[in-house]
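Objective 1b. Sequence-to-structure analysis of feruloyl esterase.
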Amino acid sequence: MHLPPTTLSTLLALKPPILSPGCHTPQPLPQDLVPGGPSLNLTLSSSLSSPNTTHQTRHYNLHLPQSYIPTTPLPLILIYHGQGQNTTSIERYTLFSTAQPDSITVYPAGVNNQFLGDPVAPPSTEINDIQFTSDLLDHLTSTYCIDTSRVYAAGFSNGGGLTGLLACNSTVGSRFAALAGVAAAHYPDEQLSEPLFGEGCVGGGKVPYLEIHGTNDKIIDYQGHNGDQPASIPLPEWMGKMARLNNCTPTAAGTGGLIGFETNSTQVLNGGNVTRYSWSCDGREDVVVHYKVEGLGHGWPGTVAVGGILDEYRGGPTSWNATEVVRGWFGRWTRGSGFVEQGEVEAFGEFVRGWTYEG
């Protein structure tokens, strides 16, 4: 089965957008921010995110597509970088600004290039990136014309862990139509100074969640065994938590590669190198999706070499792009009142050119 690539704007023809305040009161664009031009680094005051005034001024890169018109609502995508990575690097690494030409794309910056959820990151009482995300969404939706039913976030490594924390948060997480992590880092409570991914993860927003992870990841091991570094939550266990938060139907423990939940669908892709697991929740298909990638290291799959440690960790370029997978899956989901709404499966599947189903 092969489907053409899709864009988030395609959904606009099927469901009316929910206009943000910025659509009604257009604001002048910041100096040097040009639709279709390069991203611009901007600052935001986030006073509630930290008691330390030096950490209350936060940074982010903003890219407006060439199609941006101040009164026409567009989807919004937030992309969170990995630990030690900066916003320019994650933009070049994922290519979301060019791969998603009809969306506003924002790359938030972590304080000291890291986000909440890592064992060495400050606790939320010192730097709260969930509050920063909330403040950033408030600012963006009041300044730019955004379809608030189509707000999404994806993250790599430590940034992928933050999207997991957003899924755990019923207040901020419920502002997103879908979330995704690539090589995402989730840690048990005993590895952190506060309960975040364990007892602190209660959800309530029922937000679709996708994760892509390699079996050869030496930084965030698929089964959580990270050598002399803190152990992370095994991917099957984490996906089980995402399924529970989304009200998937429990089955016998350990079935289908997911602890406590059985996959509704398992597909083998990319010549056997990729296994796609998906789960249906509350009568909706593919609410939770996981790609297990054989041989992939710690990285964002992509066909373009980026050089340096990023290529070294992931094992070089791949024959497919995770960005196309994520953006296609995002295009299936909108958020109205209550649970997210699902688009037509045949129109909005996250299929990559050249992939075929096997078996």
